[in-house]
Amino acid sequence: MHKTDPETDTPNGTVTIRAWIDAIVDARGHDPRSTYVERYWVATIGPSAAWIMRRFADEFDTAPHGFEIDLDATARSLGMSFRRREQSPFGRALQRCVMFGLIRPSADGYEVRRRLPNVPFRQLRRLPGALQDDHPAWARLSSSCERRDLERTLVEAGVPPAAAARAGEAVSLRS
Predict the structure, then answer these.
(1) Which of 10, 39, 64, 138 has a C-alpha 20 to 30 A away from that of 30?
(2) DSSP string, the chain
(3) CB 41 within 8 Å of CB 25
(4) What band does 1 get if pLDDT is binned at 50, 70 and 90?
(5) For 38-67, how does the pLDDT look when each residue is reduced to its tens digit (9 = 90+)?
(6) Distance between CA 51 and CA 33 in Å, rounded?
(7) Kind of pairing between the strands at 109-112 and 10-12
(8) Cβ atoms 69, 15 nearer than 8 A
(9) Which phi and psi angles does 54 have, rounded to 5°?
């Protein structure tokens, strides 16, 4: 059972992480460990929040229906602190994930997107010009059926999901 810090309404201790099911984003989104996320989401949510999403993606690879984590231990394993307060580095990063719609609180923890959507236009406008110019080519990856089929085939053949996502991106960008 999770407890909540009464001052911040932030969960502390052990929480349950479950997949946030969204058929459209699940079908068209980007793996949190992908180059797209490194190029566009890191600039939007920050590296600490991106590391949290990557860690959750790694955990979903072995526990696709959900898992429990200790927030303090997870924070420390990522080089951050979590003093059961939103003002801690881990707490702020987790809140950025919530603020940008990548994670949402649930009764006993969080629901987390397994795939990330394209960066919203409003946030894209804040990125450097070169990233804005390159974005259409990268955004097309999210609608590529060939990329998803390749990723699925590679995973079924035993390739780790993170490697399959990067291979799918690489092939799609060269097409």
Answers:
(1) 10
(2) --EEETTTTEEESEEEEEE---HHHHHH-B-TTSHHIIIIIHHHH-HHHHHHHHHHHHHHHH-TT-EEEEHHHHHHHTT----SSTTSHHHHHHHHHHHTTSEEEETTEEEE-SSBPPPPHHHHTTS-HHHHHHHHHHHHGGG-HHHHHHHHHHHHTT--HHHHHHHHHHHHHH-
(3) no
(4) very low
(5) 999 999 999 999 999 999 999 999 999 999
(6) 9
(7) unpaired
(8) yes
(9) -65, -40
Q: In the predicted model, what is the mean pLDDT of the chain? A: 85
How many Cβ atoms are within 10 Å of 174's Cβ, its own excluded? 6
Both tokens assigned to 138: 């990268």
Classify each residue of 13-48 as buried b or exposed e, where b means 16 or more C-beta atoms within 10 Å of its C-beta. Answer: ebbbbbbbebeebeebbbbbbbbbbebbbebbbbeb
Phi, psi of 143 (to 5 degrees): -105, 10
Name the residue among 104, 12, 64 with its Cα closest to residue 1. 12
pLDDT tens digits, 136-150 = 888 876 656 666 777
The Cα–Cα gap between 142 and 78 comes to 28
